[in-house]
Amino acid sequence: MNLGEPEGGSGADADESASVPPPCDSCGTVSTAKAGPRPGPREGPYVAVLADSSWIDPVDPAQDGRRPVVACSGRCLDRVRAVLASRPYTTVELWAGKVTRAVTASQGPPVRAELERATGLTPPQIRAAYDWLEEHGIWLERHSR
Ligand SMILES: [Zn+2]
Predict the structure, then answer these.
(1) Same domain, yes or no, for 83 and 95?
(2) What's the pLDDT tens digit per position in 4-45?
(3) What b/e readout covers 34-49, taking b as 16+ CB neighbours within 10 angstroms?
(4) Ligand 1 centre from 37 Cα, in Å?
């Protein structure tokens, strides 16, 4: 797992696609880098991918549980790390997020096979996910056969 370190070395300059820099996940500061071809020198942003079982990736299910974070400084990155490290990583919470995404995306109650395909989970894992959701006061439509 890549917990990521602040990028300060050479050659790791691949991500220049974002036109609007995301705000710091700790203090909300938006990087002041100009949208020119050559941003000036700056301390941040620091980027990292941190383990977080509550993170469901909006684009890539393979990244579920791996929360991308942005911080304006090394200190803010440490704060974000501390917050995430203070909560347990719970696999069933990750399953619950996958089930929630699949049920929310489906039109009406999902068919069981669709739910299994959409989440990549086994029936016992899906049952555990529903149980976890109900324990946390979240009621989703149950799948149909
Ligand atoms: Zn910050």
Answers:
(1) no
(2) 444 444 444 444 555 677 899 999 998 765 444 444 445 668
(3) eeeeeeeeeebbbbbb
(4) 24
